[in-house]
Design brief:
With 350 residues, this protein is an alpha+beta fold. Helix 4 packs across helix 5 (194-208). It has 5 helices and 24 strands. The chain folds into 4 domains: 1-30, no CATH class; 32-125; 135-236; 244-342, no CATH class. It has a 5-stranded mixed β-sheet, with helices on one face. It has a 5-stranded antiparallel β-sheet with strand order 17-16-15-14-18. It has a 4-stranded mixed β-sheet with strand order 2-8-7-6, with helices on one face. Strand 21 and strand 22 (315-319) form a beta hairpin. The longest helix is centred in the middle third of the chain and has 17 residues, at 152-168.
Length: 350
């Protein structure tokens, strides 16, 4: 005859757990959840970023509290249907209190624990701020133009794309500019990250055309690996999208950027072609996009239109562009070789 089952701790009859404990003994012997009374963390005194899993990140207070709780909260083996609720209470700049409720089931029994955790913050300095203070940089970016000095407006446009890029990229503490300023013919910047310099260079080429050139210099050895610095030179073309250039004795509209050079659209007939950057070195800008004007059509026939000269307000006639369909009420015109010419495409670019 088999003996009746009983709790191995107190001798109580069933129901019993898988470890042959009654509910009372299970609860007495079980710590369903545990978390330290105090959690210490580090925050950079210069930039305010917190150290999280050996990385430094910018994070909101409540999200940080949830992260610290996940790092330090322990739950009994075998627990299921666990739900954690946390309320974040700020005490001062360095201290916060986490009010934590942990609920769940173990061996079919409901458990609920309450915890209060003091989150204390100590000042530190992150590696990025340490490197900034030491004028650290991994890459130098050189902004230049082909055969001329970059204008202040061009530099503003080029530099503006870096701010756009930093706003779009996922935050990285090494994405900083150590030093920047004017140099003869252009602008130089030093970056804390090679990746940032390369990403910006690709954006500049896509937006403004031109070419880039990379060179690396060995500066030392760290942990058995070579440490190099990157120099990236970006050369902006002397022309922009929408500009009209003189190439092979003809006037062409710069309509798009390709990897190896611009796409050109002939001004006087429906012809398109691609040119290499080297091909374009001997071009001259006949009329910049900013210098072109949009004017109303006063009268038109099949081949020409009367417009008002924007410089002296006299009525003049210009030949219609080859893509004119007779419906446009205005034209884009460019002053080339002492006369106004209509520009195909109206907007000046494809």
């Amino acid at each position: 005859m088999e003996s009746a089952a009983f709790c191995i701790a107190c001798g109580a009859p069933p129901p019993l757990t898988s470890d042959r404990l009654c509910e009372a003994c299970l609860r007495a012997r079980t710590t369903f959840s545990e978390v330290p009374d105090r959690i210490q963390q580090h925050r950079c005194a210069k930039c305010g970023m917190h150290e999280v899993e050996k990385r430094w990140v910018r994070i909101e207070d409540e999200e940080l509290g949830e992260l610290r709780l996940r790092e330090h909260l322990g739950v009994a083996d075998g627990a299921n249907a666990v739900a954690v609720d946390m309320a974040y209470q700020s005490i001062d700049e360095r201290t916060a209190r986490l009010h934590v409720t942990v609920e769940g089931q173990l061996e079919g029994h409901d458990f609920a624990n309450q915890h209060e955790v003091l989150l204390q913050t100590s000042n530190a300095v992150c590696p990025a701020c340490t490197r900034k203070a030491g004028a650290y940089f991994e890459a130098t970016m050189q902004l230049r133009s082909a055969g001329r000095r970059l204008s202040d407006e061009e530099l503003k446009d080029l530099r503006g794309t870096l701010d756009e890029l930093l706003d779009e990229l996922e935050s990285d503490p090494m994405f900083f500019v150590t030093k920047e300023g004017p140099v003869t013919g252009g602008w130089d910047l030093q970056f804390g990250s090679k990746a940032l310099a390369r990403t910006w260079a690709r954006r500049l080429v896509k937006r403004f055309g031109g070419t880039t050139k990379e060179t690396s210099t060995l500066v030392g050895i760290r942990d058995g690996a070579e440490v190099t610095r990157l120099t990236l030179s970006y050369r902006k073309p002397a022309y922009s999208l929408g500009d009209i250039v003189r190439w092979k004795r003809e006037n062409w509209l710069v309509s798009a950027w390709q990897k190896d050079g611009p796409t050109l659209r002939r001004l006087d007939r429906n012809e398109r072609t691609g040119a290499t950057w080297r091909d374009m070195e001997k071009t001259s800008v006949a009329c910049r996009f900013e210098e072109q004007k949009v004017v109303d059509v006063l009268n038109r026939d099949s081949s020409g239109a009367e417009i008002m000269d924007p410089t002296d307000y006299r009525v003049v006639t210009v030949a219609l562009p080859y893509d004119d369909d007779g419906s446009s009420r205005d034209l884009r015109i460019a002053f080339i070789d002492d006369s106004w010419l209509a520009v195909p495409g109206h907007a000046g670019v494809d």
